[in-house]
Structure formats: structure tokens, C-alpha cells
Amino acid sequence: MQIKTAKFVISSSDYRQCPAPDRPEYAFIGRSNVGKSSLLNLLTGIAGLAKTSSTPGKTQLINHFLIDEAWYMVDLPGYGYAKVGKADRAKFATMIEQYMRERENLLCVFVLIDIRLTPQKNDVDFIGWLGERGIPFVLVFTKADKLAKTTVGGKVEAYGKYLESFWEELPKMFVTSAETKTGAKEILNFIDQINQENKNPD
Ligand code: GTP
Ligand code: MG
Questions:
Q1: Which bound ligand lies closest to the C-alpha atom of 54?
Q2: pLDDT tens-digit readout, 131-155
Q3: Could you give the angle at which helices 36-44 and 184-199 cross, rounded to 10 degrees?
Q4: Which atom of ligand 1 is nearest to the CA of 177?
Q5: What pLDDT score was predicted for residue 64?
Q6: From the CA of 62, how far away is ligand 2's center (Å)?
Q7: CA atoms within 13 A of residue 53's CA, in its CB half-sphere
Q8: Which of 74, 78, 189, 191 could form a disulfide with 32 if both were Cys (CB 3.0 to 4.6 A apart)?
């Protein structure tokens, strides 16, 4: 699948302000600066559609983008950003958690992880939180261009091994780079498959 049209719809500070939940939706989440907005731009092929920044904490609201007039991509603020004050961090966490829990058309959450890092507590906690609530999710390792190609597979495998120490079932995993534009096709095909299944439920 290739995206033909993508347009920004609305920024919301609360899930109740989001567009009517009348089509499939996919959300991008992860630590601040991991590359959520960059991945959205990579997938849509429109640089600058979602605002990116080298300064963490750029995305502060729930941002809806309408794709091919048929489904939504959602760019979310990052979690675990130390420079945002404690009160703001708690507000973000509540906003994201409520959105994830209440958004009935949310078909899959993409949890982004910087491929260079060993498992971080806030990522693992968040993955656990999704798992406990039965919210479907996959992992996306970002910034693969920052590692030597030969080490990428080992990093992903090690992450999986770590998760297997708590979870029986491993989520699907993707490796991406917004820099070298890798991994987009796989993610788009995955989304397309879910969209098709959603159209023709058995
Ligand atoms: P917040 O909105 O602040 O939570 O960040 P974000 O997760 O949306 O990250 P964003 O897409 O704004 O990217 C953060 C920084 O990482 C920017 O300087 C991007 O250019 C850079 N970046 C994102 N993806 C990649 C990648 O695949 N490779 C490299 N080398 N840099 C990347
Ligand atoms: Mg962002």
C-alpha cells in the first residue's frame, strides 16, 4: 500500500475532542524524541506534515491525520520527558492513557523504541500497561541508521529476549529509519492488512 493523500485534521487535548470514531485508527507513541512525528512523515511521504524537532517535547497534543479519506494516523506526545514539569507530565500521561483506553476505533498502537537503547523502564512499563489492558500494539525500532547494519538484528533479538522474560507472546516488531527511509513499506502493508480485515470481518 502507498498513501495517496494525508491531511492534518485536528489537535486535541482530550480524547473527547477527537474526530468521530468512525474509521480505523493507528497511534504512534514512545519516549520524547524517539521519532514518532518523523515516522508519520516517512509513512505518508510528506516531510513536514507532522512537526518534528531535535528538542524533545515537540508534540504536545493528540494530532489526527486523515489518510486516503479512509483511516486515521495519530501523532502523540512523548512520555518520560524530564524537562516538562511533573504536573505537565502527569497531565500528558492522563491524556494519553484516557485516549488509549477510550478510543474505540483504535486498532493498533505503534510503540516506538530507539534501537540504540537497552530496554528502558518507561518503555517496558508502557508495553506492560498496554498488554494488561489488551490494547493491540506492535514495536517499532527507530533510528536504525545510527547503528551498523550488522548489529541491528542482534539488538532487536536482545529486546525480544528481554520481553520474553515477562511475557509469553512477543509483539510484532519493525525496524525503521526516517533518515534512510527504511521500514515504511512493511508498516504500511501491516496497516493495510488490518484495514482490510476490518472491512470484511468474519
Ligand atoms: P516529541 O514530539 O518531542 O515527543 O518527539 P518525536 O518522537 O515526535 O520525535 P521527532 O520525530 O520530532 O524526532 C526527534 C529527532 O530525531 C529529530 O531531530 C529527528 O530528525 C530525529 N530522527 C527521527 N527519526 C530519525 C531516524 O530514523 N534517524 C535519525 N538519524 N534521526 C531521526
Ligand atoms: Mg513528535
A1: 1
A2: 999 999 999 999 999 999 999 999 9
A3: 80
A4: 27
A5: 98
A6: 10
A7: 10
A8: 78
* CA 91 to the chain's CA centroid: 19
Residue 191 neighbours by CB distance under 10 Å: 21
3-state secondary structure of 20: coil
Which DSSP letter does residue 114 get?
E
Calpha distance 105→112 (Å, rounded): 20
Residue pointed to by grid coordinates 497534543? 61
* Ligand 1 pocket, residue 48 CB under 6 Å: no
Length of the chain: 202
Going by CA atoms, what residue is nearest to atom 10 of ligand 1? 35
Domain positions in the chain are 6-197
**pLDDT of 158 strictly over 90:** yes
Q: Class of the 6-197 domain?
A: alpha beta
Direct distance between the N- and C-terminal alpha carbons of the chain, in angstroms, rounded to an integer: 22
Choose one of 38, 51, 65, 143 to mutate for the ligand 1 pocket test, by most ligand atoms within 8 angstroms of C-beta: 38
